[in-house]
Amino acid sequence: MDKRAEIVDRTGRNVDRRAEIVDRTSRIVESTDQSTDRRVRATDRAAKIVDRALEIVDRAAKIVDRALEIVDRAAKIVDRALEIVYRAAKIVDRAAKIVDRALEIVDRTAKIVDRTQNRRIESSKRRLPTPKRKINRQNRKPIFA
């Protein structure tokens, strides 16, 4: 019976060791489960954060699209304004040419008028006789007629 007692004793110790191993394993499994639960909760939180970030990015993209539409409209308005300014510049240029031409005509006319006046003055100097003296009988002063 010694052998049987020894075998039973060894078997009991083996069972105890296995029970300890099972106990440690169950604690490890439990700890792993808790870690897994924490990881799952953290993953859920991260997923919620990512979803919220995607919503924000989507809103921002919509805002950027709207801003680009506004910029496009503004560019069209500026383009149209530049066309109008260009046309106005052409009109101003034509008007300036007309004014230059008119000033040339006025200058020529002024020269002609000056020449004509100079001729009249010269001719009037030649033609005018010396004025006759008439005496006003009332106050006895000479009058040039």
Short note summarizing the structure:
With 145 residues, the protein is mainly alpha-helical.
Question: Would you give an account of this structure?
Answer:
This protein has 145 residues and is mainly alpha-helical. The chain has a domain at 2-89. Helix content is 87%, strand content 4%. The protein is built from 1 helix and 2 strands, in the order H-E-E. 0% of the residues are buried. The mean pLDDT is 85. Residues 117-145 are annotated as: Disordered. Residues 126-145 have a biased composition (Basic residues).
Q: Provide the succession of SSEs.
A: HEE
Could you report the average pLDDT, rounded to the nearest whole number?
Answer: 85
Largest beta-sheet details: 2 strands, antiparallel
Q: What's the total helix number?
A: 1
Helix/strand class: mainly alpha
Can you tell me the overall shape?
rod-shaped
Give the total of beta strands. 2
Q: Which radius of gyration do the C-alpha atoms yield?
A: 59 Å
Unreliable sequence segments: none
Estimated helix fraction: over 70%
* Lateral strand order in the biggest sheet: 1-2
Strand proportion? under 5%
Distance between the termini: 182 Å
Biased composition (Basic residues): 126-145
Region (Disordered): 117-145
